[in-house]
Amino acid sequence: MKNTNDAPGENFLSGGKTPFVVKLSISQFGNCVTDPTVTQEVKHEKHLGDDSGKWDQYKIRPYRLEPVEKAFRSVRDVTKFIWQPQPDGTWRQNRRAHRSPWERGYGLSNQDEVEILKIEVAQAEEEAFAVLDEHIVSKWDEIVEEAKEVHNGTFRPELYPSADAIRGKWKVKFTSQPVVSSKHLETGIKALYGDAIDQMVAEKFGQAEEKVWDQLIAPMSHLAETLVDPEKKFKDSLVDNVKAIMNAIPDLNYGNSAALNEARATLQQFTEIDPQDLRDMPMIRKQTAMRAQAVAAKFTQSKRILKIQNEGDDQ
């Protein structure tokens, strides 16, 4: 469980315990609002980008939300150290099983640990809502008055409902689902339901793999789009983001996909590039941009093939 370094001793395929898929998702208050006065006509006239106005208005001053966001991150972090069983029966700590900062999923654990995890999530959730009540709900009238002063003529009353309505914007949802293999079932049951269960499990892994491909495609596409413009400036994070997703692949590759393992090897060549060389050496920059474009296209094709296979399995 949380903050432990000792892997469970049982082989999850033969040790008599059923592994579970657990998912923790957190919904929160959206603090940014698009300014409705920045129309497409205004953007065109003033030569503004499509995102212009998107960050012009915060409903609540960001400093007020900082302790609340920190508290709900603590709820999320409860799942940080779940042990994840592997297809070969071994276990590995699941440190990166999430698709966004506010959602974690597909961490596997046995039923006893799931029950403990539910209690830990509930405790962290209670503490987070206490922080929310202290910093937002109890001070809502003060916050609204502050917003009126800050936004002046652009204040929009419809964005500031009651304190209870605002509190309802934060939600924590914890779900768990057993993952069983047909080999765990009696022969008669297996004959009736075994293939369907195995197919359901395969579909879950296939859907998870599709999302991993999305996470691989994004930084490679961004790398290619940035480097193809010889005048465009960039930060070292352009390369660091590729390295981060490459390092995360082993923890995201739940089905031990050969294609994802191959993708990790492909990304390795980009993590060895010095960002400063890309700035100083136009030829290296151009070559890297071309390679990144090719890899992004290859990853997109791999996802497309997987999606077709997954949709075929649903038929």
Question: Could you characterize the architecture of this molecule?
Answer:
This protein is an alpha+beta fold and 315 residues long. It has 2 domains: 1-179, no CATH class; 194-315. Helices cover 56% and strands 13% of the residues. It contains 10 helices and 8 strands. The chain has helices spanning 40-45, 62-76, 111-137, 140-151, 163-167, 187-227, 237-252, 258-271, 275-280, 282-314; strands at residues 19-27, 32-33, 57-58, 82-85, 91-94, 98-100, 103-110, 171-178. The strands form 3 sheets. It has a 4-stranded antiparallel β-sheet with strand order 6-7-1-8, sandwiched between helices.
Describe the structure using short key phrases.
315 residues; 2 domains; two-stranded antiparallel sheet; alpha+beta; four-stranded antiparallel sheet; disordered N terminus
